[in-house]
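pls read this protein.

:::
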Amino acid sequence: MPETAAVTGLGLVTPAGIGLEATWRAVCRGGSTARHHPELEAAPVSIACTVPGFDPRVHVPAPRPWRLDRSTQFLLTAAHEAMAHAGLSTEEWDPSRVAIVIGSAAGGVATLESSHCKLLESGPALLSPLTLTGFLPNMAAAAHLALGLGVTGPTLHVSTACASGATALGTACLLLACGACDIALAGGTDAMATPLCAAAFARMGALSRRTGEPEAASRPFDKDRDGFVLGEGAGVLVLERAGHARARSAPPLALVLGHAATSDAHDPVAPDPRGHGLRSAVLQALRQADATPGDVGHINAHGTGTLLNDRVEAGVVRDLFPVSAPSVTSVKGTLGHTMGAAGAIEAALTVHTLTTGLVPPTANFHAPDGDTAGIDLVTGSPRRQHPKLALSHSLGFGGHNTVVVLGAA
């Protein structure tokens, strides 16, 4: 069993606000952040969950932040909050012993879209020389963060669609376990509330069409769910070898006890209707944590609000936890689907559940259907609970399944 990784810092930028506490307050209130988005007026679906009041000149700790893609701006902001939360300073660490692993589904897609429009309208002469470094996935995520912090250890970008942020956490744990680093900044970022992405998801039939009442559109596990609401944001967790955290007297917020990744090999976008991949990932992650389904007290579900995802995920939870019935929540009712950032944001909120003893409710849930009934979904208001072991599920197009097991410190 790999050495346990300690979570010592959290940083978030989400549609609920800038910072962990702003996001936590919003998910505990259980309302929605979905609104009509002016930039999407020409798209088939114009609603999205976007980060409010974000000013790169104020919030991004970098020189000339306006030159960076929006996803990069989110990432740098979240990473600096996570470092401050962990009590880390670049002046005190060995940069060669720090790793960065960041996931995203699309890289700097806003930069790519705007640059392509400029190319078509004005020709190549007016294209920015920073176009490539703005949208290439490794640059928009991990590389710009490494440049800003002076990190010289392993710097990786991972992409497993909507499971990317969780995949980054698992990959960072592997780097810690094999001795490649002492500290890892791991997480995800995406800013896909763009005309191209919104139109493409709408054409696929993945987005909620409840545009007349955007605040009620994202409805995880509800019988009237009809798709997800596009979101954006970033989440970063500071992970350390447990011994390293102790040596610098950094109290762990939680422990990463296990993680696993599987593939459905079923369909480009639809999950395996039998849920074999997710079920296998849960069992593998629990085995690595030396735990059983009966030990799990809480699950932060992927819970997108699509017909197929919620049906499959609820079925797996019913099958694996027929007696213990862990509490289940999905924060996508509040935050929308933040794509490659979702797994990291949700893992961070799961850590906060372990530290605060509160499980946020699933927004916009009114009643289950036959596919989603039989799970202990937290609704209405936060539930007071002190689980010792929690799971965070993340699924992605292409059949990616990633499960992270988090334990109370």
User: Anything to note?
Assistant: The longest helix spans residues 70-86. Residues 44 and 202 are 6 Å apart (CA to CA). The chain has two domains: 5-247, 259-408. The mean pLDDT is 96.
